[in-house]
Design goal:
By secondary structure, the protein is mainly alpha-helical. The protein has a domain of 68 residues. Helices cover 39% and strands 0% of the residues. It has four helices and no strands. The longest helix has 30 residues. It is elongated and about 125 Å long. One of its GO terms (molecular function) is hormone activity. This is Protein RALF-like 32.
Length: 117
Amino acid sequence: MDSEYTIRFQNFCCFMIVSYMHLSTAVFSQTNHAYTYTCNGSIAECNQEYEMLMESEISRRFLEEKKYISYGALGRDKPACNGERGEAYSKNEGCLPPPSNPENRGCSKYYRCRSDS
C-alpha cells in the first residue's frame, strides 16, 4: 500500500508541474500580446502610429532648403553685377544672360525656310 501512495504522489507531483508549466506559458503569452500583434490591414493602416515618428522626405527637403542670403551678398560697398552706382542692371552686360529667342535668328536649310536668311 505504501508504494501505491508513493506512485500516486509522484504522479500527482508530475501532473502539478506540467500544469504549472502550461499555465505559466499561457500567462506569459497573454502579457506579451503587445509584442506579437499582427495586423491584417494595409501597411499604412498597420503603421499609422509610427508614421509621424519617422522623418518624411518632404520635411527633410524643407530643412535642407537655404532660407538666408549668402555672406557675399552682404558685403559693403560691393556693386551688384559689377555695375556702376545708379546704373540699371540691364545696361550691364555681365549681369543678365543673352536673350534666348532673338528676333532675327536665321533659318537653316534643314527647316526649309521660305527665305534664305
